Write a sequence for this structure.
């Protein structure tokens, strides 16, 4: 499956810049500042609220409903929990960080380089089963010899820890791999959408929200949905792929990279989840099929959630759809995605905006 090579190139460059920034949940300032400057010339207004959410608005002709498009800016990571006298750092999880995927990785601690320690290979017991460490067993080595050395580096308890894993581009393909593809790829898609709409006046207002703290319970999205009060919304996020040898495609996750964007029909659990609104499902499928855009239908019940889980519950209820960008190796420093999926998602979103005059029936029945 191929799409516009120029669009793919633009998305690749944008993703490279966005993933190079560190923005763990609660520490998204570098990402928000970058996107504020990027959205400014493409929007009628750009604001940042007290929570850190960014709002970029394209005002419409007043002939259609208000549409909110959302992607989150934060990435998984850890927090410095304590500093040992010898200069090693202990950490707490921040979001869906998995200890198994942290061992032996290069990291940044408040912007300073470090590594997550691992027992030397020569001291491992040969033939023994590898044991997954707990988060309390992990430590970060920043090259310090004492707690005083750590303080001199400007590192304190509560500082963020993020993976250091620059974007890797594969030869002869549009695949990329690295940290924070979840969900900087969604941010890149929405930024490019506004660039394509720069000289277009939509039927109704289109509000892009770059939400904070999704990885710790969609905290920014709760605030943003209440503030924007849209007529309907689409949440753009990455989506786990089931097309690797260690996942059963049909029984665990029937979605893969390079097969088009995912329309998320159900997610989360009984406490934090969402079922797509019938009107959103109808409109999304109609737009995709009219434009010949390949798409996937998927669910992730009891597996994960997106910001759509809280958006659709705001105020009197907001009809909400989920648009997923498949990626392998989720919540790891080597997440992998096919940029053609992102390019198709961009085409879909532009077509959806163009179809806004037809979106009049928000009734459940």
């Amino acid at each position: 499956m191929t799409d516009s090579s120029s669009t793919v190139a633009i998305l690749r460059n944008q993703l490279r810049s966005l993933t190079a920034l560190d923005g763990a949940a609660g520490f998204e300032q570098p990402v928000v500042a970058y996107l504020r400057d990027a959205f400014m010339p493409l929007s009628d207004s750009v604001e940042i609220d007290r929570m850190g959410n960014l709002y970029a608005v394209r005002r419409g002709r007043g002939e259609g409903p208000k549409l909110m498009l959302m992607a989150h800016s934060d990435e998984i990571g850890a927090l410095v929990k304590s500093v040992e006298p010898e200069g090693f750092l202990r950490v707490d999880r921040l979001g869906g960080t998995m200890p198994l995927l942290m061992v032996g990785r290069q990291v940044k601690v408040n912007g300073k380089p470090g590594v997550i320690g691992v027992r030397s290979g020569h001291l491992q017991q040969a033939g023994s089963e590898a044991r997954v460490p707990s988060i309390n067993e992990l430590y970060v080595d920043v090259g310090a010899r004492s707690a005083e050395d750590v303080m001199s580096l400007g590192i304190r308890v509560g500082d963020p820890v993020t993976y250091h894993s620059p974007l890797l581009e594969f030869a002869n393909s549009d695949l990329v791999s690295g940290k924070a593809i979840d969900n900087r790829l969604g941010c890149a898609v929405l930024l490019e959408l506004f660039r394509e709409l720069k000289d277009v006046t939509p039927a109704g207002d289109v509000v892009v929200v770059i939400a904070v703290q999704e990885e710790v319970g969609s905290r920014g999205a709760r605030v943003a949905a209440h503030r924007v009060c849209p007529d309907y919304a689409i949440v753009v996020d990455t989506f786990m792929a089931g097309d690797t040898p260690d996942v059963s495609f049909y029984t665990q996750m029937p979605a893969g990279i390079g097969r088009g964007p995912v329309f998320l029909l159900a997610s989360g659990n009984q406490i934090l989840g969402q079922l797509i609104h019938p009107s959103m499902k109808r409109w999304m499928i109609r737009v995709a099929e009219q434009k010949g855009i390949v798409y996937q239908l998927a669910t992730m019940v009891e597996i994960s959630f997106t910001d759509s889980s809280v958006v659709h519950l705001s105020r009197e209820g907001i009809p909400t759809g989920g648009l997923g960008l498949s990626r392998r190796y989720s919540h790891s420093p080597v997440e992998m995605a096919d940029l053609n999926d992102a390019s198709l998602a961009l085409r879909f979103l532009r077509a959806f905006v163009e179809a806004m005059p037809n979106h009049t029936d928000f009734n459940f029945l």
Notes: The chain has two domains: 5-75+179-358, 77-163. The helical segments are 5-19, 29-39, 147-152, 181-196, 219-228, 278-290, 308-311, 339-354. Residues 6 and 343 are 10 Å apart (CA to CA). The longest strand covers residues 232-240.
